[in-house]
Amino acid sequence: MAAVATARELIPLSRIIAALLFATAVAVFALQNGQAVEIRFFAARASVSLALVILGSLTAGALAVGVAGGARVLRLSRQRSECAERLRRLEAELAAASQRVEPPGAGQRARPPEGQAPAPQ
Predict the structure, then answer these.
(1) By CB neighbour count within 10 A (0-12 exposed, 13-18 middle, 19+ buried), where does 113 fall?
(2) What is the DSSP letter of 114?
(3) Phi, psi values for residue 93, rounded to 5°
(4) Which of 94, 92, 26, 88 is nearest to 62 (CA)?
(5) Overall average pLDDT of the 86-115 stretch
(6) How confident is the model over 26-42, as pLDDT tens digits?
(7) Distance (Å, rounded) from C-alpha 52 to C-alpha 63?
(8) pLDDT tier at 1 (50, 70, 90 boundaries)?
């Protein structure tokens, strides 16, 4: 019997499909615009295919997004580790404090029922 995929499992598949469709669209666009263009950057000049310029720009953008995303993942991972360590310390502190606390009524004398005199000490 085939297993039914959950929405959580389909998210990565949908991202892969979207990425492939986007890459195909960019490749078609680049191939349709293959004429040579002159690129000037400060004092440098070069004549290159517009397709290479488009693909180079796409690659540079993807790298920038990847670096920013990687930095965010590292920051969140560090925060998670710090929170896990703080939780561990607080749980240990709670366990130690609960061992020091007497149960309710342990240090108190029992009260006599209403109307009776307290027992002599």
Answers:
(1) exposed
(2) T
(3) -65, -40
(4) 26
(5) 78
(6) 888 878 887 888 988 89
(7) 16
(8) very low
